[in-house]
Amino acid sequence: GQNIDQPTEMTATEGAIVQINCTYQTSGFNGLFWYQQHAGEAPTFLSYNVLDGLEEKGRFSSFLSRSKGYSYLLLKELQMKDSASYLCAVTDSNYQLIWGAGTKLIIKP
Amino acid sequence: IAGITQAPTSQILAAGRRMTLRCTQDMRHNAMYWYRQDLGLGLRLIHYSNTAGTTGKGEVPDGYSVSRANTDDFPLTLASAVPSQTSVYFCASSDSTGGGADTQYFGPGTRLTVL
Q: Which runs of E-coded beta strand occur in chain A?
């Protein structure tokens, strides 16, 4: 079956760095997305990786290793507004998006 | 402002009633999707449409139907609501013809409670 695993919840301190991991087992691979979702709101696009390596976008970076079925989202200089859930999603061979359950990130002052 | 709108924002519905959730986008995206999101679970695809006039079943289609008469609108209908359909429903769109590698943009969601 298809499966995406990410931690349920993480806690970090304002100003620090946090890494949210995502491992996946899917039938085929056509890219991996990270979305941010604040409580009670819609998911919003953060990043997309289809090739191995690191993609950097401001305070956020996303890494992909296709051979390991692994990705992480790195958030630097954490701000209170970064408190949200972070969703990992993989596009399979049928171009369907398979979603992880999300990681709730709690930022403490 | 361009984007996706959904209506209603929230609804409480008696079991057995029929309900249509509305979704409209003004980005001229080809593909549209309906998801449900439940606590502890990832987003689950209910139905999708790669282009106007076509629809397809997702992971959890039972009890739901959709239509895609034009590019902008993609309503989701619950023919006879049951309590297990209590959830938050998100509509999304992407500028593709079914290639899921394209970024999906989400509406604000509809919170549905079936009693």
A: 3-5, 9-13, 18-25, 32-37, 44-49, 53-57, 60-65, 70-75, 84-91, 97-99, 103-108
Which amino acid belongs to residue A71? S
- Given A42, A91, A101, which is nearest B90 (Cβ)? A42
Residue B90 pairs in a beta bridge with: B35
Q: How many CB pairs under 8 A join A and B?
A: 52
Tell me whether strands B10-13 and B110-114 are parallel, antiparallel or unpaired.
parallel
From residue B25, how far is each of A10, A62, A106 by CA, in Å? 34, 29, 32
Q: What is the pLDDT of residues B44-74, one digit of tens each?
A: 999 999 999 999 999 999 999 999 999 999 9
Q: Are B63 and B46 in contact (CB under 8 A)?
A: no
Give the residue from A73, A101, A107 showing the smallest Cα distance to A4. A101
